[in-house]
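Hi D.,

Good news: the full-assembly prediction came through. Inputs first.
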Amino acid sequence: MKTKAIFYHAGCPVCISAEQQVVEALDKNRYEIEIIHVGEDKAKISAAEQAGVKSVPALLLGGNIFHINFGASLDDVKGG
Amino acid sequence: MKTKAIFYHAGCPVCISAEQQVVEALDKNRYEIEIIHVGEDKAKISAAEQAGVKSVPALLLGGNIFHINFGASLDDVKGG
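Then the structure:
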């Protein structure tokens, strides 16, 4: 059974770079990867906050959130 | 031929978490992973700086540096 990995982003250039390189490098035989664009649906922002996301891009892996560089804070995404 | 991935860390708890989860999740069939402990050898700090590392843990992938969460700045590592 694959481990779930969730990549949260908001379409920003830093997000796209992280998606194209870090997410792309994950082992898809072991990880089931879900991509969530928090800017497209406000309901996804609160779900991301509950998961511990403070800024995007961020990767949820093994129950922990890993913030990768800094594209935008969730507050910025809410305001945008 | 595998793509080179370099993980820079300083043994901090945030670093260890990133190593055990993010680095562990990389596809080892496609990436050749090198782990560099910048705290063990001061010469490695300047090499990391030249690669664009500002803080650890950080992952060099496809020529770009991805800072993962925040464990310590390279300046802290220098002073430590």
